[in-house]
Amino acid sequence: GPSQCNIIGSGIFVSPKGVLENASSVGLALIVWIVTGVITAIGALCYAELGVTIPKSGGDYSYVKDIFGGLAGFLRLWIAVLVIYPTNQAVIALTFSNYILQPLFPSCFPPENGLRLLAAVCLLLLTWVNCTSVRWATRVQDVFTTGKLLALGLIIIMGFVQICKGRLTHAFETFQPYDIGQIALSFLQGSFAYGGWNFLNYVTEELVDPYKNLPRAIFISIPLVTFVYVFANIAYVTAMSPQELLASNAVAVTFGEKLLGVMSWIMPISVALSTFGGVNGSLFTSSRLFFAGAREGHLPRLLAMIHVKRCTPIPALLFTCISTLLMLCTSDMYTLINYVGFINYLFYGVTVAGQIVLRIKQPDLYRPIKVSLVWPVIYLLFWAFLLIFSLYSEPVVCGLGMAIMLTGVPVYFLGVYWDNKPQCFNTFIGKMTHVCQKFCVVVYPDMGESRNVGNQGTE
Predict the structure, then answer these.
(1) Is 362 in a helix, a strand, or coil?
(2) What pLDDT, on a 0 to 100 scale, did the predictor assign at position 34?
(3) Which of 62, 76, 324, 453 could bridge to 56 as Cys pair (CB 3.0-4.6 Å)?
(4) Other C-beta atoms within 10 Å of 25: how many?
(5) 403: containing domain
(6) What is the pLDDT of residues 312-353, one digit of tens each?
(7) Contacts (Cβ under 8 Å, ≥6 apart) of 307
(8) ∠ at Cα 440 (437, 445), nearest 5°?
(9) Closest among 137, 96, 103 to 118, alpha carbons compared
(10) Which CATH number does the domain housing residue 289 bear?
(11) Is residue 194 within 8 Å of 344, Cβ to Cβ?
């Protein structure tokens, strides 16, 4: 269903290198993949309880806002708008350009500027598609999901063939001493591939029978995705040595060249299709979150406006596009992944802690799904380990994310909390909004319409 498609993104074609680099051995890297899958499933269970207890679209933003108040919710939104979505989209777009260009440069890495330029073209094209027609955007999603499944199917089948030939043993020979801080970073790299596991919580209002379907989606999709990821990684190491994997910027291309011979062109094309669809899907969900934020008065009304005829959220899409282009100033994907992974985990933990707080504050609240408190506690212990040691290993990258988040505090008090702003300020904002409305031909939907637009967005 949609949740597998949302979890399996470009991560599995990027993260294996980052996980192996930090874990320092194949065996440990596979353990990281399995543990990340288990932790993701535990997190998803906690989110399922919250999703049916606070049945609002907007995911963890809505839960944090309801449990910890407006400021915490705003900071979640602020960091999602400024860091999480733009960085995710930048990484996926860079993966797209890497897989397109790598086969053209067989003996070296593609040029930096070429990678950035192609990533920017991909992003601009998809922003235009999403602005033009909701139907086109959903068709792009459906068509390009097949690329993803084709690539992974090929990798896993070839991996099984290799295992049957007994090619697996040499992969486990090298085992370097490990560093606990590096292992925390390898979990951050792995968790990037599992991103999207909480997608259904963003559309709870639109789910048919969420009490049944949320847990079902979790129990089916996350074990399935973990299985696919572990086997894809086993397949990678049957085809190439750990050193070759670390030397490759496009793992699946190297895999294809090793095993598919004349047909090796299938791999880069399949992955490029998959990542193209990934950027498209991310543009979709980001505009959904902007709707939720502007509806609560936490974002400028302009960002929740939709085109008069096409019903597409043009201002939200343009904003996401511009902020992603800024992220393309760097083409080091692995730094970007650490950066976004740290911030994501920070808020996953705050949300899961919110589940415990809500149990204490409102023990009699109706909870159609109720999980044992053991699960959020296990999640929070792992969360604390991950944050402390990744901050210790990468203080600048992780600290930068924290600093950007804290810039949201004055913005919240000036923009949201301060009610009686001077008239001249309100007039200025009103005029600016009016100009942008004319430029984009957008209007503020009433609540019924915005739900309708939301539904179209996830066909």
Answers:
(1) coil
(2) 93
(3) 62
(4) 18
(5) 2-457
(6) 888 888 888 998 999 888 767 788 888 888 888 888 999 999
(7) 131, 313, 314, 440, 441, 442
(8) 60
(9) 96
(10) 1.20.1740.10
(11) no
